[in-house]
């Protein structure tokens, strides 16, 4: 994992059929720009479906949600599969604004990987 900001670390691994991004820390107004740049740079270089694993995120605010919406829209426009894995905090925030369907929110990484593989 590399440090994207003081409060956010991220990395990715290439699985057989997808890219899995892992993040820890806070996805907020301070880190959303670096988050977007990092994910988009990797997605430009490797044309595979994406799984964004936020199961270790401590805090997600409206700016972070906005970044996730932009990312989902970008993937949809590029006809690329996209899934979001959340923990209880992330899931609560996403469901509060009724974006779980748009962001393809799932409960855990094995579920996401099985849906990408299907």
Describe this structure in words.
By secondary structure, the protein is an alpha/beta fold. Helices cover 41% and strands 31% of the residues. It has a single domain, classed as Transcription Regulator spoIIAA, CATH 3.30.750. The longest helix has 16 residues, at 62-77. The protein is globular, with a radius of gyration of 13 Å. The model has no long low-confidence stretch (mean pLDDT 94).
Structural class: alpha/beta
Q: H/E element string?
A: EEEHEHEHEH
Strand content: 25-35%
Number of helices: 4
Largest sheet: 6 strands, mixed
In CATH, the homologous superfamily goes by the name STAS domain
The top level CATH class name: Alpha Beta
Shape type: globular
Q: Largest beta sheet: what is the strand line-up? A: 1-2-3-4-5-6
Overall average residue pLDDT: 94
Poorly predicted regions: none
What integer value in Å does the Rg equal? 13 Å
Termini gap: 28 Å
Going by CATH, the architecture would be 2-Layer Sandwich
Identify the quaternary structure here.
single chain
- Number of separate structural domains: 1
* Helical content (DSSP H or I, runs of 4+): 40-55%
Number of separate strands? 6
Output the keywords.
118 residues, alpha/beta, Transcription Regulator spoIIAA, 4 helices, 6 strands
């Amino acid at each position: 994992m590399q440090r994207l900001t003081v409060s956010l670390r991220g990395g990715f691994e290439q699985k057989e059929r997808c890219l899995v991004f892992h993040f820890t820390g806070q996805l907020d107004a301070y880190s959303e720009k670096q988050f977007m740049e990092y994910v988009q740079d990797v997605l430009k270089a490797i044309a595979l479906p994406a799984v964004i694993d936020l199961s270790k995120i401590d805090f997600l605010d409206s700016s972070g949600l906005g970044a996730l919406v932009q990312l989902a829209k970008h993937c949809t426009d590029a006809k690329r599969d996209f899934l979001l894995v959340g923990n209880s905090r992330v899931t609560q925030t996403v469901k509060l604004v009724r974006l779980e369907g748009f962001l393809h929110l799932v409960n855990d990484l094995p579920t996401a990987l099985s849906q990408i593989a299907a």
